[in-house]
Amino acid sequence: xxxxxxxxxxxxxxxxxxxxxxxxxxxxxxxxxxxxxxxxxxxxxxxxxxxxxxxxxxxxxxxxxxx
Length: 67
Description:
By secondary structure, this protein is mostly helical.
């Protein structure tokens, strides 16, 4: 499908639905850009977590909380 075909289809859509089309186009562009490069830093996926947490240390700290 070419850009001109999509443009003609968009021109046929009533104006009240143009915001939805714009949001969908933004999502498709985001999805295309995200698939180009896999995340190398975990903070991109999980917010502020920059390092891996050792599970055993976490359990020890949780259990020793009351001692």
